[in-house]
Design a protein that fits this description.
heterodimer, A: about 425 residues, alpha/beta, Alkaline Phosphatase, subunit A, 12 helices, about 35% helix, B: about 260 residues, mainly alpha, two-stranded antiparallel sheet, 9 helices
């Protein structure tokens, strides 16, 4: 069985296979961070960066209830006149690229989320966040921070979840009885703790001989590899803010920016749910969109505060889009066509690529100029992933090309 | 197995339990494998990291209580505001996939669990009557491995070693024969830790009082405070803290935190 077949077979069997890779030194400074923000449930781009609206109150089947004349503009970007959109786009349009009319080819939550974040509709591919972290920063103790969403790793890197961040001090200082005072009373003296760890290291050889099946070996190796990076977690505690935001997305942003600042993480998945608005769409969706944009705005402010904003790329997406019509409950159902927003380092901002017609059907674009062309190609998540892999510098990674190729679509010059 | 099968009149019900319990089916180890063999055998065995819920249940089963200082506190492993997500748990809403490969944070949580649980249960268990003890049924807190002059106390050492074997079996499922290298290693950890503590106690550099969190002052399940004369606050011989080190070592072990 060759390596590729083995990996695929293991993946199909639900096994996590830690691929042997050359990890970079733990203290190597990371110069490019990625945050992937998932709007869970399927957002409505016509309430964000692909606005449609209605011309009169008499429109029988409007895409939106706001009026066309109220659609806003910030630079070259157009935005729906709802919530905090105006404030957000007027502040961030210069660093924002909107890709509209992206065809996820599904209206199923799982497969849509998978397609958006792995670039592949079929199962088995890692989230791009995991792929980048696994290729470039696997040795970092929190290389890939995941708050949920699509965080399959393909065995490339262990994800780190962050729950209640008040607990981080207790994690960073496990031997301190009161973690708010790391220099206070300890469970065991430093000498005894070192003795315990030496005994663990000695016992590893015996365990390895006694439990020699590959699965047992892999879990032992993973545990001991994790222990190597455990003290790096203290750097996270060092850079966490004194007070945490109340909103979930903002808290996630605070943790990932602190981890970036501490040089212990490369990528992060941030998640905000509640976009699956099959009923009472406008009111519910508008609230979630506002929270989403406030969270992303906060993320950029926090990145500035931590001094890593110029090294940060943010990608915002969702499972899919929502129907051009309202259902009988005032809701909107699933629609395969969506948008993706890219911001920050390496992203040509103040630009819109692709689009949709008045019923949210996707344009096709010329593969060279990216202008609308009836004989062009339909933009898919795979195109976005080609561009992001290139931006991250992993497009030339041989193992990635071999194990997780994006063969269904050819690259488009989305980022120049 | 064959004989049983034939004797049962070729009844499959008779042989299935024997197959499932056989060493071959429940493969735990193998000789050195080639890369190809390792690939083929990759699915064999059941080794995996315990989920937060499983680890919590295991603590309850082996130590008699979950990971929390008082009965009405939040469970450290299974509550979403504590370590649930950090330790790879799910909420079946936004987080639906478990983390199966430990990271640096999870390693630290495992270590804190081991240190804190050992702190919480050691004095508590020594404060029980001998027949009721879960962890230390073969020793007393007064059993020191060496006397004041540094000479071994053979009877005490025998009891300490017997209790170490007991702990290996209770916490790790390992049946060690007397003199087994793993018994020796754990005893060495106990001995060196005790020597450090005892020297500190004699020089008044270490307090005889246990840290507040490690004292037994309250019945865990009823949450009632114990009468003063039933509390265990002190460790004048250093043995309780040496046993804490041993219990921490075993609770942080791969065999405790993983299913084999």
């Amino acid at each position: 069985m060759d390596r590729r077949a083995f990996i695929r077979w293991a993946g199909a069997a639900g096994l996590a296979v830690m691929l042997p890779r050359e990890g970079r030194a733990q203290d190597e400074a990371i110069d490019h961070f990625f945050v992937f923000v998932h709007a869970g449930g399927g957002w409505d781009p016509t309430m964000l960066c692909d606005p449609k609206g209605r011309r009169t109150e008499e429109d029988e089947d409007p895409v939106n209830t706001y009026f066309v004349d109220d659609i806003g503009e910030a630079g070259n970007l157009r935005y729906a006149p709802i919530g905090d959109n105006a404030a957000f786009f007027n502040k961030h349009f210069g660093k924002t690229l909107c890709i509209n009319g992206v065809d996820t080819q599904t209206n199923n939550h799982d497969s849509g989320t998978r397609h958006t974040w792995s670039g592949k509709l079929a199962e088995g591919y890692p989230a791009l966040a995991a792929l980048i972290a696994g290729v470039q920063s696997r040795s970092k103790p929190m290389a890939f921070i995941s708050n949920g969403g699509y965080d399959q790793t393909g065995g490339l890197v262990a994800p780190t979840r962050t729950g209640n961040i008040d607990a981080v001090n207790r994690i960073a200082w496990p031997n301190a009885i009161d973690a708010r005072r790391p220099d206070g009373e300890l469970y065991q003296s430093e000498a005894t703790l070192a003795r315990i760890q030496a005994a663990q290291e000695r016992r590893r050889g015996w365990l390895s001989q006694r439990f020699a099946l590959p699965k047992a070996q892999a879990t032992q190796d993973a545990l001991f590899a994790a222990r190597v990076g455990k003290n790096e977690v203290r750097r996270l505690a060092e850079f966490l803010p004194g007070e945490f935001a109340r909103e979930s997305l903002k808290r996630q942003a605070q943790v990932c920016c602190a981890a970036f600042r501490a040089n212990i993480a490369k990528t992060a998945n941030l998640v905000l749910g509640g976009f699956d608005t099959h009923g009472n769409h406008d009111a519910s969706h508008s609230g979630r969109m506002t929270e989403l944009l406030q969270g992303i705005d906060f993320l950029w402010d926090e990145a500035e505060r931590q001094g890593i904003a110029d090294k940060l790329t943010v990608v915002v997406g969702s499972d899919f889009g929502r129907t051009p019509s309202y259902n009988s409950g005032g809701g909107k159902d699933h629609w395969a066509i969506t948008s993706v927003m890219l911001m920050g380092k390496g992203v040509p901002g103040n630009r819109v690529i692709g689009g949709t017609d008045e019923r949210v059907r996707p344009w096709t674009v010329d593969p060279a100029s990216l202008s609308r062309s009836d004989s062009g190609v339909r933009i898919e998540p795979g195109h976005v992933h080609h561009a992001l892999r290139r931006l991250a510098g992993i497009d030339g990674d041989a193992a990635t090309q071999q194990l997780f190729p994006l063969l269904e679509v050819s690259p488009l010059p989305l980022l120049g | 197995m064959t004989d049983t099968f034939v004797a049962s009149g070729h009844n499959l019900k008779a042989i299935i339990p024997l197959v499932v319990h056989s060493a071959y089916y429940r493969a735990r180890s193998a000789e050195t494998l080639t890369e190809d063999e390792a690939s083929v055998l990759a699915p064999l065995g059941t080794a995996r990291l315990l989920t937060p819920e499983e680890l919590s249940s295991k603590l309850h089963a082996t130590l008699g209580r979950p990971w929390k200082a008082r009965v009405n506190d939040r469970d450290q492993l299974t509550h979403s505001s504590e370590f649930l997500f950090f330790y790879g748990g799910i909420d079946s809403d936004q987080v639906t996939e478990r983390i199966t490969e430990p990271n640096g944070m999870m390693a630290n949580i495992g270590l804190r669990m081991a240190l804190d649980m050992a702190c919480l249960v050691t004095a508590e268990d020594f404060n029980r009557a001998l027949p009721d003890r879960l962890l230390f049924p073969l020793v007393e807190a007064s059993y020191r491995p060496e006397d004041d002059n540094g000479f071994a106390v053979p009877l005490a050492e025998d009891a300490i070693r017997a209790n170490i074997r007991y702990l290996h079996q209770r916490l790790l499922g390992e049946v060690l024969t007397p003199g087994h290298p793993e018994e020796d290693a754990t005893f060495e950890l106990f001995l060196q830790t005790w020597r450090e503590l005892f020297a500190g106690l004699r020089n008044d550099q270490i307090s005889t009082s246990l840290p507040g969190r490690c004292r037994h002052t309250r019945d865990f399940w009823s949450d009632d405070e114990l009468p003063d004369d039933e509390r265990l606050n002190n460790d004048p011989e250093g043995t309780l803290r040496a046993w804490q080190a041993v219990v921490s070592y075993l609770l942080a072990d791969w065999r405790f935190t993983h299913h084999q």
